[in-house]
TrEMBL record:
SUPFAM superfamilies: FomD-like. InterPro entries: DUF402, FomD-like_sf, UCP012622. Pfam families: DUF402. Residues 23-151 form the DUF402 domain. This is DUF402 domain-containing protein. The lineage of its organism: Bacteria, Bacillati, Actinomycetota, Actinomycetes, Mycobacteriales.
Length: 167
């Protein structure tokens, strides 16, 4: 398995841009700042999806997203959740992805992905023990919370005092 460094992104509220992990700068259509997080919505030039909506939720260590897929690339998922460190800023928010992901199929199940990537990153020194443990604890808490709310991410976030809304 190829082990890559944690993916880092920047969300520039002033310039209304999102710099992705590869350094590409994309124009953001909507930013909304709330006490519990940052909402971003932008068009995408990805071959599989054309629009991306995300909530960065620093206190939970989560980035919740909806990928608006092209019909021929549609996936069986309602929400995609990245586990990591998310840092608030006055003008620029930052994210560092810690490998683990959740796929939420509302009302049905929540699937944990990429445990192998997290363990490989730890084994090769790309993540220290504290960050690795935090990622596991964050994912566990999120899976438990989402499952306790009928596998409904939005319902769990609302119960946590973080009522999210989407486009």
């Amino acid at each position: 398995m190829h082990v890559h460094p944690p993916k880092v992104e920047a969300f520039n509220l002033t310039d209304r841009t999102n710099t992705d992990p590869k350094g590409f700068i994309r124009e953001v259509e909507h930013y909304r700042v709330h006490p519990w997080g940052l909402y971003m919505a932008r068009h995408a030039d990805h071959p599989h999806f054309h629009y991306l909506e995300s909530w960065l939720l620093p206190d939970l260590g989560l980035r919740a997203s909806i990928f608006h897929y092209h019909p021929y690339h549609a996936r069986d998922q309602d929400r995609y959740v990245d586990i990591g460190d998310f840092t608030r800023g006055t003008d620029v928010w930052r994210s560092e992805d810690h490998y683990l992901d959740l796929v939420v199929r509302t009302g049905r199940d929540t699937e944990l992905l990429d445990v192998d990537e997290l363990l490989a990153a730890y084994a090769t020194g790309l993540l220290d023990a504290a960050a690795t443990e935090r990622a596991i604890a964050t994912a566990t808490r999120a899976v438990d919370g989402i499952a306790a709310h009928g596998h409904d991410l939005d319902a769990w976030l609302a119960a946590e005092g973080m009522p999210v809304s989407w486009r």
